[in-house]
Amino acid sequence: MTKRNVDIAVIGGGAAGLAAAIKAKEKGIENIVILERNEELGGILPQCIHTGFGLRYFKENFTGPEYISRFIKKAQDLQIESKLDTMVLEITSDKKITAVNSVDGLLTLQAKAIVLAMGCRERTRGALGIAGTRPAGILTAGTAQRLMDIEGYMPGAKVVILGSGDIGLIMARRFVMEGAKVEAVVEILPYASGLSRNVVQCLEDFNIPLLLEHTVTSIHGADRVEAVTVAKVNVDWKPIQETERTIECDTLILSVGLIPENELSQIADIALDSATGGPIINDYMETSVQGIFGCGNVVHVYDLVDQVTQAGELAGESAARYVLNELPTLRKKIVLKAGDNVKSVVPQIISGEEPVTLHLRVKKPMRNVKVKIGNLSIPKRVVRPPEMVVISFTGKAIEKLEKKDELRVSIEGETGP
Rounded to an integer, what distance in angstroms lies between the CA atom of residue 95 and that of residue 99? Predict the structure, then answer.
């Protein structure tokens, strides 16, 4: 058993965790450790060999490995300690961490601050309840991506993709580029769940059919997937039986949403937001437990890794300021509540005294909209559920914001794409 004290422990070595650790080190904190359950740093990015990363943060177009390698190198140059192949078993509200690995055995860390950066996981078939047998050939999009881009295996030759999330769209293109036939991407909503640019670049440019308002109702096959039944759905998302048809395939890829990894947060009694699945945070990315901060996809699922990195930097800086006793106490707490056509808002608590950036998810597409926060109104041309709405409040806007204990965040406009 190994016991030690650290200033800051970062749980997760992906884009958010690396950014947090680097920023904390740059702020003068020396005793930092990153705990990563994989055998390498980088999170999901080493298997994302497509481009599109870093356009906002670096103003360059990188692949996932190229993007994350910059942060891995910087962490190494700064001599930030990382413990790989390390599974965190428990964290407590007094910031004690219990972990295990093959080198230290049982590892106990007492931290002054903790940054949660565990990322998110994919929903699986078990969460969907699709009827049928249990043959080989059913994979999540991320698993298929790893098999192809890291392990070098081709999961199938005739593919149906359920869900039009960004990973599913990217994998549709990837399958075609490797010589497979993508029979269809099936989406239960009346619009694609991924970014518009991915719909164009991954489906339209490769002539891959997108079946909107459809779902997979049954899987066929004994040893291996042989076909799936798809059907159109009604306004209640119930399959319309007379529209059912069979599509022959040997592989079903699931791209049906991501879930923030917050089992450790629950153990530490950190308050979670039912809308995001992540911790409730304030301006400084601090959770309901003092000295524990959250960032990246563990808080809520971002559209871009650039946004994940920026959230990590804010959390790392805040954790460093907390350790140095420089983090201001929120004298005033304004709770932000989701109003009309708003599914979630992060952060959920603001001071109303400092500049802050809000990230919103909407429930339905609208155009010519106004985002209303208390007495403030911000115009936006279009909002769509797949694309995060980002609102940055400068000092002048914050000065004008009415100071109430609770403010509703609402979106008004014309219904439509």
Answer: 13
Distance, CA of 148 to CA of 166 (rounded, Å): 17
How many CB atoms within 10 Å of residue 106?
12
Alpha helices in 90-199 (DSSP H): 141-146, 166-177, 196-198
Residue 407 belongs to what domain range? 334-415
Residue 328 lies in a domain: no
Cα dist from 348 to 53, 112, 294, whole Å:
27, 24, 13
Summarised one tens digit per residue, pLDDT across range 46-101 is 999 999 999 999 999 999 999 999 999 999 999 999 999 999 999 999 999 999 99
Q: Within this chain, do residues 252 and 265 fall inside the same structural domain, yes or no? A: no
> Which helix (H) or strand (E) segment is 220 a member of?
strand 214-220
251 and 266 assigned to the same domain? no
Q: Look-up: residue for tokens 């999901």?
A: 44
62 φψ region: left (φ > 0), alpha (ψ -120 to 50), beta (else): beta
Q: Are residues 157 and 111 in the same domain?
A: no
State the Cα–Cα distance between residues 199 and 192, nearest whole angstrom.
7
Q: Among 9, 25, 18, which residue's Cα sits nearest to residue 73?
A: 18
Helix (H) or strand (E) holding 264, with range, is: helix 263-267
Same domain, 93 and 133: no
Residues 346, 409 within the same domain: yes
Q: Are residues 130 and 245 in the same domain?
A: yes
CATH code, domain carrying 137: 3.50.50.60
pLDDT digit string (tens) for 184-201? 999 999 999 988 899 999
Judgement on whether residues 203 and 294 belong to the same structural domain of the protein = no
Cα–Cα separations (whole angstroms), residue 250 to 255, 356, 379: 17, 48, 47
Last residue of a domain, one of 206, 237, 256: 256
pLDDT (mean) for 102-111: 96
Can you tell me the distance from the alpha carbon of 169 to that of 161, in angstroms, rounded to the nearest whole number?
Answer: 8
Give the number of domains in the chain.
3
Q: Which amino acid is residue 386, in one-letter code?
A: P
DSSP reduced 3-state for 31? coil
Do residues 209 and 183 make contact, with C-beta atoms less than 8 angstroms apart? yes
